[in-house]
């Protein structure tokens, strides 16, 4: 009988043991295996739909394709290190805890047991369906210099997705990827403790790829899935997004925001619309007029122009109310 263990999150998700990995690989190749209760528990917790035939042979109802190290590694370049994991609490946390000075570290995983979004929110992370990607590097910059980094990453990723066929993808300040159907993904930049060689910077991206109901009923907004708009090979896309992030982290400076402002305007799905920005209990309404050279949101309000700083903020449209 398959043995499964409990993760560090109160037992809500199993540890994927070596035996479980072997069985999952067989199932991903279209093979049938002997059904048992522990295997069924594992598949249900991983959100994998299966069927059992009259002779107790179990197989998956839909294709299961894992991330491929051999595909991702050449795309990220020779100077980056790749950690491809079956499961992790958070790819961002893994990178921040593991990052060494002088290293560019890329981490991606099939599932996160404690994925993090902005403002402390939990990031829904079903198994082998989406992309959970983090890239870390120690940067010799001031903390203030990083204010617009997440916006530049968002622009580069949105343009990549458009080039690959998702022509409707756009951005919402400060760091959401959207389609007309809802939120497609998000970007979370986290910083480690500054040291003599600089600040450890981790850029994390969560991207919804394949439609799945597991866990999404708790989300209070519309969401969308990349596979509804284009063919997706997760391994190729992980490698290409990581390469974009690595490039930005190596070349980013506060002055580069000037080059991205017009691009942001073309990708901003709230451009010219009335929005409400909430931060620390304060709410401000105004017309979204783009971003300034520091990555701040420009709001035309009834009392004049206000500038909003990315951080613990949220924004929503109010012109449809």
The H/E string reads EEHEHEEHEHEEHEEEEHHEEEEE
Classified in CATH, the superfamily of the largest domain is: Bira Bifunctional Protein, Domain 2
- What is the mean pLDDT? 89
What class, by secondary structure content?
alpha+beta
**What coarse outline follows from CA principal-axis ratios?**
globular
DSSP, total strands:
17
Classify the helix fraction into a percent range: 10-25%
What is the level 1 CATH name of the largest domain? Alpha Beta
Question: Quick summary of this structure?
Answer:
This protein is α+β, with helices and mostly antiparallel strands and 321 residues long.
List the helices and strands and how they pair.
Blueprint: E1 5-6, E2 14-15, H1 18-28, E3 33-34, H2 37-45, E4 50-52, E5 57-60, H3 69-76, E6 80-88, H4 91-98, E7 104-112, E8 131-139, H5 149-163, E9 170-172, E10 176-179, E11 182-191, E12 199-207, H6 234-251, H7 257-267, E13 274-279, E14 282-291, E15 297-301, E16 304-308, E17 313-317
Parallel strand pairs: 6-7
Antiparallel strand pairs: 1-2, 3-5, 4-5, 7-8, 8-12, 9-10, 10-11, 11-12, 13-14, 13-17, 14-15, 15-16
